[in-house]
Predict the structure.
Amino acid sequence: LRRWVTDHGSQLSSDALARVLNDWPKRAEGKEIAHALGSLCVRQWGGTLYLTPRQHADTTEAIAPCFESGLWTGSEPLALTEGGTIRLLGASALDAPLQRVERAAAGRFKPAGHGHHRSLQTMLHRLGIPPWERAAWPLIYLNNTLVCVPNIGVVHHLQTQIDQEGLSVCFQKS
């Protein structure tokens, strides 16, 4: 562990090493543990250790719009300012452009084919998205209504609006 941290340009003191190793077995199932180490942060979630830049430790920071016009038709892949790309699958373009706004702290979503709304936190957790990445996960809106969570699904009326089954939006981290 110490060598892994050193190889990434930081130092892990004996005290920090003890905190990481002592806290890990005591954590509640599904909970994250984070220890700051200079410009890096050692995180544990889902049985795996991660080494991330320290600025990701604060998941409450606002997310800037991902593109200047604020609209996306899906005809071209869209590079996000926070990193990564979203793509429309199952259609060449949308009739009405979609918007992406900053992620709400909490919310619910009902993708097409699901019987009821579920919390975004639960859906992203089930996808295996670590907690510090969830705040930056792109959410796509139409007329200020959440219509798509990439890699999870789109709302039913958006699928029927463009009259195609299997529409999805894929998010790929960079």
The chain is about 20% helix and 25% strand. Helices lie at 2-7, 14-26, 120-126, 131-134, 156-161. The CA atoms of residues 56 and 132 lie 6 Å apart.
